[in-house]
């Protein structure tokens, strides 16, 4: 070590605690952190210029919270030389009342003197900047090690000092105050602004904090500019790193001190939002790649992200880009294109598009979107606002020969997502015209993108929809699997479109299969609009094919998601499904609300099929309210729609006519429905026959439905069981009636389908109120319809089923004694067959099916 001669040349103000300036804001949270830190050997405060490192140390040093004397050194240029550094340190100790000899080795002298003290001494090294391999750094580390319990070192620096910080960190003897802690909070910012008599709205305050990231110098410069400003909120909206005062400060504090090659590297690497060594090489050449590590290490405005990535403080980056624009106006666009190309090669399409757009290379930006299958994000099928914002300023593509069809497709996608169907249609026409001039140049990715935009049409008016869908499905087969895995929204859209098409054409099983398959990729895509659309249409399809429980479950899931899609569009299918479910649960008020929302959605996006389904569900609501005439009026408003939907409407009209007693019209509507494979038709004919007073014909029709060997839809089976029960009771066969009613209740309870029972209430109510044994398993289900037995009405009127003969009463008496058929026959001196005949009659008259049930019913009626 060089021998220290004297400290006479040390400037006094460099070795005393600076006086706090009048504008100093004491930030208690940082002072407390430093107070805790000096209980240990090492405290490090790091951050870029202007973050308030020195002010934080002054605040702590002047608050009287130190564990001993404070020796303060404000370092200067050349402090890395021992003959400069140690005289300043020794002078600071002396001024703090710690007399240390300057002869010999200062480290040894300090260590010896400090270890003899009763209390520790705090040494503050403000603005420390030492090369890792310098002698002073090694000696400082030795001093810290040798005076472990007596010296408390506080360092402020732009970068981590070359001290053994990891060792102290592992020993939990290191306190760090970094950029995150030094950043101003909202309350501290308000205090700073108040010093300049500036008051901002809460929104502007947060904007200013976000722009500056709490950088103290940036906030102070903004506050100075805001003093007396007539429109402070407007100023904040435009305040950034390219503000003249900020640029001047950063040039003075940072750029002017950098060598020319480092300065060029800083300017070039400021172009992207994030930077790593490879991208730095792409932007500034091979030499830059080697210099990158030193740049990010030495520049405190370079903030580490992860995996080798860094970013500049946004205000520093803004200032660098402004300087770059002034010094090399055309170079910024060139660097943006280089960055776009590099990001595209590495698979980061978002950053590639952003840089291409900033360079004004719109055809290239659009081609990146199309080639990388990102069109679904622009359609709003996946949460992503960044890509759309990058392309927001893109001009429309004119249909000139030199135009880029990709640009037209991107315009169409953004217009569709924004609800501008006129612009979307014009852009699609432009794309088709450009492709028509050179069909061979249309890549599969371009044709797929056009097809996806067409499939996303909220108004399925395209007569070539089926052909377009088939073509898109074929193109998907040619798309690499890994690309589809990265873009589940594309698969979800195509499957949803297939399901929607099948639903509109009445192929409900196929619709359910496609929509079910769309749920998984829609979930992975994370787009709530597409997911809700799939759930809503699937719920509607399940309802139409007669699966109430499944429809209820799906509709409930859809209702949990936000209603609005892109541009505030609402899906009619979801609301129709919810209305249908509300009817099944006999919630007419809620059904009306959902029907009104569905009507609004259909008006917003006209759709003949959804309009027809709205009429169908609306008419069912009218029937539930007991208004068959209004139900007819509802269905007659539909003038167009597919044949299957018109058949459904005719069958509902048939039911309404039957309820009105217009039997001829009821039968005519059912016959006009036509489709012999639809089991709803024989049910409609049965209702018409019953209304016309031909119960035998009605019974034959209903039994034919129940005997159907194939899978009968739940709603059809439920209606058939209820109608069969009604016919059996009215026809004098209460045993069958009760069996059918029990089956209907079991099925309705399982599927939570209340509507058929609500509409059958006039004939069901007297039966169920007098049959507690039948009702008991379904009390909770029937209670919602007020169809449970009431007090005083539980006793069964025997005349409802038929009186028991004397011999039948005798058989009942023996049954109650748990006798077998043979024992009863022997006791009564009759044959076994005679007893069996009596038992059948008893079961029929008591509306039961088993011995034990007959005995219970007889006891309840006081017959035994």
UniProtKB/TrEMBL annotation:
<keyword id="KW-0804">Transcription</keyword>
<dbReference type="GO" id="GO:0006355">
    <property type="term" value="P:regulation of DNA-templated transcription"/>
</dbReference>
<protein>
    <submittedName>
        <fullName>Regulatory protein, LuxR</fullName>
    </submittedName>
</protein>
<dbReference type="InterPro" id="IPR059106">
    <property type="entry name" value="WHD_MalT"/>
</dbReference>
<keyword id="KW-0805">Transcription regulation</keyword>
<feature type="domain" description="HTH luxR-type">
    <location>
        <begin position="797"/>
        <end position="862"/>
    </location>
</feature>
<dbReference type="InterPro" id="IPR000792">
    <property type="entry name" value="Tscrpt_reg_LuxR_C"/>
</dbReference>
<dbReference type="InterPro" id="IPR036388">
    <property type="entry name" value="WH-like_DNA-bd_sf"/>
</dbReference>
<keyword id="KW-0238">DNA-binding</keyword>
<dbReference type="InterPro" id="IPR011990">
    <property type="entry name" value="TPR-like_helical_dom_sf"/>
</dbReference>
<dbReference type="Pfam" id="PF00196">
    <property type="entry name" value="GerE"/>
</dbReference>
<dbReference type="GO" id="GO:0003677">
    <property type="term" value="F:DNA binding"/>
</dbReference>
<dbReference type="InterPro" id="IPR027417">
    <property type="entry name" value="P-loop_NTPase"/>
</dbReference>
<dbReference type="Pfam" id="PF25873">
    <property type="entry name" value="WHD_MalT"/>
</dbReference>
<dbReference type="InterPro" id="IPR016032">
    <property type="entry name" value="Sig_transdc_resp-reg_C-effctor"/>
</dbReference>
């Amino acid at each position: 070590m060089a021998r220290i001669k004297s400290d006479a040349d040390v400037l006094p103000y460099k070795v005393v605690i600076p006086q706090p300036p009048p504008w100093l804001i004491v930030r208690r949270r940082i002072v407390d952190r430093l107070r805790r830190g000096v209980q240990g050997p090492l405290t490090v405060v790091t951050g870029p210029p202007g973050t308030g490192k020195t002010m934080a140390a002054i605040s702590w040093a002047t608050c009287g919270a130190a564990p001993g004397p404070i020796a303060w050194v404000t370092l200067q240029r050349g402090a890395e030389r021992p003959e400069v550094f140690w005289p300043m340190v020794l002078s600071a100790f002396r001024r703090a009342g710690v007399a240390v000899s300057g002869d010999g080795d200062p480290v040894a002298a300090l260590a010896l003197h400090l270890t003899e003290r009763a209390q520790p001494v705090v040494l503050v090294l403000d603005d420390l900047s030492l090369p890792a391999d310098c002698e002073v750094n090694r000696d400082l580390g030795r001093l810290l090690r040798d005076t472990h319990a007596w010296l408390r070192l506080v360092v402020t620096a732009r970068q981590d000092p070359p001290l053994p910080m990891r060792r102290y960190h592992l020993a939990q003897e290191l306190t760090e105050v970094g950029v995150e802690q030094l950043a101003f909070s909202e309350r501290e910012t308000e205090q700073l602004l108040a010093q300049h008599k500036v008051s901002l709205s809460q929104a502007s305050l947060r904007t200013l904090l976000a722009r500056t990231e709490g950088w103290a110098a940036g906030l102070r410069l903004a506050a100075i500019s805001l003093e007396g400003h007539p429109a402070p909120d407007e100023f904040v909206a435009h305040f950034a790193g390219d503000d003249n005062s900020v640029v001047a400060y950063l040039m003075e504090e940072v750029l002017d001190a950098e060598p020319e090659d480092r300065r060029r590297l800083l300017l070039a690497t400021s172009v992207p939002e994030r930077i790593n060594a490879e991208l730095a090489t792409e932007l500034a050449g091979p030499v830059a790649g080697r210099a990158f590590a030193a740049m990010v290490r030495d520049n405190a405005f370079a903030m580490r992200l992860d995996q080798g990535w860094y970013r500049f403080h946004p205000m520093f980056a803004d200032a660098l880009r402004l300087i770059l624009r002034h010094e090399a106006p055309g170079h910024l666009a060139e660097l943006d294109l280089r960055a776009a190309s590099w990001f595209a090669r590495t698979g980061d399409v978002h950053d590639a598009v952003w840089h291409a757009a900033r360079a004004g290379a719109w055809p290239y930006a659009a081609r990146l979107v199309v080639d990388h299958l990102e069109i679904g994000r622009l359609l709003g099928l996946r949460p992503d606002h960044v890509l759309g914002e990058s392309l927001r300023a893109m001009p429309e593509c004119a249909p000139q020969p030199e135009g880029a069809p990709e640009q037209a497709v991107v315009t169409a996608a953004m217009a569709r997502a924004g609800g501008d169907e006129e612009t979307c249609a014009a852009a699609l026409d432009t794309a088709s015209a450009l492709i028509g001039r050179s069909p061979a140049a249309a890549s599969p990715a371009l044709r797929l993108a056009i097809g996806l935009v067409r499939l996303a049409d909220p108004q399925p008016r395209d007569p070539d929809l089926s052909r377009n869908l088939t073509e898109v499905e074929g193109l998907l087969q040619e798309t690499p699997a890994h690309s589809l895995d990265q873009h589940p929204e594309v698969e979800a859209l195509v499957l949803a479109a297939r399901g929607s098409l099948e639903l509109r054409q009445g192929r409900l099983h196929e619709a359910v299969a496609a929509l079910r398959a769309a749920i998984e990729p829609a979930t992975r895509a994370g787009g709530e609009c597409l997911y809700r659309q799939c759930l809503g249409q699937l719920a509607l399809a399940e309802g139409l094919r007669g699966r109430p429980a499944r429809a209820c479950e799906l509709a409930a899931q859809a209702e949990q998601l936000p209603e609005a899609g892109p541009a505030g569009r609402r899906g009619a299918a979801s609301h129709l499904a919810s209305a249908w479910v509300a009817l099944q649960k006999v919630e007419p008020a809620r059904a009306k609300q959902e029907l009104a929302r569905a009507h609004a959605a259909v008006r917003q996006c006209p759709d003949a099929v959804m309009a027809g389904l709205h009429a169908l569900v609306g008419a069912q609501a009218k029937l539930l309210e007991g208004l068959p005439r209004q139900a007819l009026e509802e269905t007659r408003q539909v003038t167009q729609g597919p044949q299957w939907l018109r058949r459904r409407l005719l069958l509902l009209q048939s039911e309404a006519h039957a309820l009105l007693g217009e039997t001829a019209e009821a039968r005519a509507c059912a016959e006009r429905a036509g489709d012999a494979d639809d089991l709803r038709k024989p049910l409609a004919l049965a209702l018409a026959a019953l209304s016309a007073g031909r119960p035998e014909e009605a019974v034959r029709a209903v039994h034919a439905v129940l005997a159907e060997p194939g899978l009968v839809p739940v709603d059809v089976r439920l209606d058939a069981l209820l109608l069969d029960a009604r016919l059996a009771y009215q026809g004098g066969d209460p045993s069958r009636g009760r069996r059918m009613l029990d089956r209907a209740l079991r099925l309705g309870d399982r599927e939570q389908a209340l509507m058929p029972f609500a509409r059958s209430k006039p004939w069901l109510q007297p039966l169920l109120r007098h049959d507690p044994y039948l009702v008991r398993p379904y009390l909770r289900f029937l209670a919602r319809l007020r169809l449970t037995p009431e007090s005083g009405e539980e006793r069964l009127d025997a005349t409802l089923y038929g009186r028991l003969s004397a011999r039948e009463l005798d058989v009942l008496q023996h049954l109650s004694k748990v006798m077998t058929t043979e024992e009863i026959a022997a006791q009564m001196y009759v044959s076994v067959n005679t007893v069996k005949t009596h038992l059948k009659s008893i079961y029929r008259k008591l509306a039961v099916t088993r011995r034990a049930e007959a005995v219970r019913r007889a006891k309840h009626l006081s017959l035994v």
